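Appendix C reproduces, verbatim, an entry submitted by the partner laboratory led by Prof. M.T., so that reviewers can inspect both the input and the predicted structure.
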Amino acid sequence: MITCATEPVSILENSIAEKVGPQRFKLWFKNATRLTLADGVVRVDVPNVFVGEWIERHFTETIQESAREITGENHEVTFSVDPSVAKDLRRKQPDSQVKYVDANPERVARRQKREGSPPPTPPLPGKLDDFVVGNSNRLAFSCAQSVVENPATRYNPMFIHGGCGLGKTHLLQGICNELKEKAAGPPLGLCFR
């Protein structure tokens, strides 16, 4: 939380944290607000309207109660949207968060698109060698092996249908991985829907 350098504000923060719990305090106050306490008013600066409205609906009474306990007086709670709160919070984010944001695949893909280089293809987890073959899926596995051995010939298109959790995705990822290993050039024209 970004705060004024006054003792009552830090006491107010501690009181609010005790009442709402550490997780909610960290989410809605420490990482999203700046509090000031003066002249019978608790001012809550927030980065956007959503955060302000949420805190107002759910925590106004808690803020008033905490302020009353500290000062012995009733306080009005006001909210103000201040975009600098978000900027200050971003500057204080730990390095691991910054590294995560920089390594975010969607961000990397957008940046690479802007710069003109193609985004890297992430590896798929499924492998045909790991696929568990049983009576109910033996035909599907056999067809997948045939597609890998002779792409775009016998089973073209190959249609896989089944219930949830039966291995359709694993089988398709295994086919893709095997074809990637076999292909020296660009990927074959595979279409998954």
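Strands lie at 2-3, 34-38, 41-46, 76-81. Additional entries are available on request from the coordinating office.
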